[in-house]
Amino acid sequence: MSIHKEVASMPRRRALQVLGATGFGMLTGGLPPVTSAAESGFATPVLPEGQSAPRLARDEAFWREVADYYDRSDEIVNLEQGYWGQMARPVLESYQQATQMVNTRNSWYARRRYPADLQESTRRVATALGVESDEIVLTRNATEAVHALLLQYRGLQPGDKILYSDIDYPSFISTMRWLEQARGVQAIRLVIPNDAGRDQLFSLYREAFLAHPQLKLALITHASNQNGLIIPVREISREARQRGIDIICDCAQSWGLVDFTLPELEVDWAGFNLHKWIGSPVGVGALYMRRGSLERVAPYPGESDPQNRSVALRVHTATSNFAANLAIPAALDFHQALGGANKEARLRYLRNLWTSEARQMSHIEVLGAGDEQSWSGIASFRLAGRNSAQDAQALQQILEQDYGIFTVARYGLESGACVRVTPQVFTAADEIGALIDAMSNLRSRV
Ligand SMILES: Cc1ncc(COP(=O)(O)O)c(C=O)c1O
């Protein structure tokens, strides 16, 4: 019988003795601290010594070993991994154990020990992002984080302007449009060409800043969920700062897809997901607010923060999935065992495998950046000249039904609808080969 089941079936006083005797200590009612995957003795992949990230990216044998850490379905080739990220088995086990433990101990755990464990998970997230714990609050997803920033931003007066682009996340664009009505501001839409490179991306934002001196706030998406474009956030943020424009950075898709830490981006505010490329359980995001930047964003309605000291008061998540937050250390352990740079290189390699072939096909239009640094492991495509929502839906269905390849249609880009392709690090080169064959056969459908 597990310790949880044993304890659950004991009279209360005896249970406390057992927990004490198992070395759990007297602190906070004798409850054990949260344990990370490494501390729990879970295995994580061992990197071959002395391999550069680009070389490791091509090592199918190594990535097959990594794939063995995941429970994968053989019913479909899943190239829609940008929605949310599967947990590796050590993370799943940590999550399952935490679920059982929390369910067994119920409010005794939640009231006595959870705050300290949550703090430890927050510390791990902050450290991994290269910032301080008091600059991070955990949320249920990136939407909760970015919405808090958009809706509680204090800097808008009627007549001001706010900026977004067509590669931004559609629901955040809707919120920007809602701000027009709610705050009497004007939302400016920036159109970003699919083949833009770093210099052009920077110039587009700079020109928009120059053209609209009334701009107060800009939403910037680090990695687009539409076409995988990576925006040069740091350069744009520096330019914005000089002009008094505040930046909200959407890092929902970028953390784990791209290898970076927050100080590199030089932004005051950002929203994150851990349930995409970090591989935590679903229901884990984070809000970052740089020290000294809290004044410009109001606390969550009804919360009082007279000294503007607490990022935690910017969201009100209330009761949420305890176990998901307890599995954060295991997810970060697994992510760090693989290495952010190795993951990024592998994903870029897999994207190159199919886009380099697809670019030779006259019936296919690949949507991706003009230079390598502005393009992540995500890319999109469409049949040449076929950019309606129905075209993209039909293409997605052909891939799924005729070829057993799962992708997703995306509709946000100014250039029209497309199909997004998102491999995971454990996607095999053979699976990308199946996509290339299918794309080649699509010629007969044009
Ligand atoms: C760029 C981007 N922003 C925001 C989100 C929202 O993430 P969530 O639904 O986890 O809040 C997503 C999700 O796909 C995304 O890709």
Task: Write a structural description.
- By secondary structure, the chain is of the alpha/beta class.
- It folds into 2 domains: 218 residues, Aspartate Aminotransferase, domain 2 (3-Layer(aba) Sandwich), CATH 3.40.640.10; 105 residues, Alpha-Beta Complex (Aspartate Aminotransferase, domain 1).
- 43% of the residues lie in helices and 13% in strands.
- The protein is built from 17 helices and 13 strands.
- A 7-stranded mixed sheet has the order 2-8-7-6-5-3-4, with helices on both faces. A 4-stranded antiparallel sheet has the order 9-10-13-12, with helices on one face. A two-stranded parallel sheet has the order 1-11.
- Strand 5, helix 11 and strand 6 form a beta-alpha-beta unit.
- Helix 8 runs parallel beside helix 9 and helix 10 runs parallel beside helix 11.
- The chain starts with a helix and ends in a 5-residue tail after the last helix.
- The N terminus is likely disordered.
- Pyridoxal-5'-phosphate binds next to helix 8.
